Amino acid sequence: MGAEAEVSGGLSFELSRLARTLQSQQVMDLDSDRLLLEVTETATQLLPKVAHGGVTLVVNRRRRTVESVAATGAIPRTLDRLQDELGEGPCLESIWNLYTVRVADYATETRWPAFVAALLAQTPVRSSLSIQLYTNENELGTLNLYSEEANVFTHDVEETALTLAAHAAIGLANARRGDELQSALASRDIIGQAKGILMERFDVPVGAAFTMLTKLSQELNIPLYEVARKLIFEEHPPK
After folding, report:
1. What are the GO MF terms of this UniProt record (predicted)?
2. CA-wise closest residue to 42 among 67, 17, 24, 25
3. Per-residue model confidence (pLDDT) at position 75
């Protein structure tokens, strides 16, 4: 009883810590890959006999192409590559059909025969759990957890993994917003530098400098940010 209470307390503490991290403003300082790696590493530390973890994200929804991120080692990347090449497997099943996919024992698994044969030949993985991550209509992926033993993903383990996946989805959404904010701030800074160059070169006020940039953007049919970047590059070429 004491050991169970200690494990339960550890799970609760770590889940609370992870939730605070992923839902706080700290995500503004993390790119999405590092943030998701926090989730996969926490999963392998918290969940008994779960040895490997990773996240599969959709790159192109129309072409159904995916990428492997936040892998705790080579094995999750290998399994993502195999599924992408073969066009079948639990991660893809979870992504496209929007549900959790559990494999109790790959030695007796009959779904995705080509993938299962490759997995058994190339890795020590014997069971897995893939949980669909959904943050918005443009963001799809799965949290993938692997064990080198069969029958590891019990109901209790799956419940904890579902909680981790929920935190991952929230954190990913926040990180994406953070990435967008940082990109916007960077663009504003570049445009500001370009306006300063024009103000100094042509002795014009800030409004006129901005008008010059926008007219160039329209005439050249390229984004305002690109006009500003090219101007800065010409003024201060890299050494």
Report:
1. kinase activity; RNA binding
2. 17
3. 97
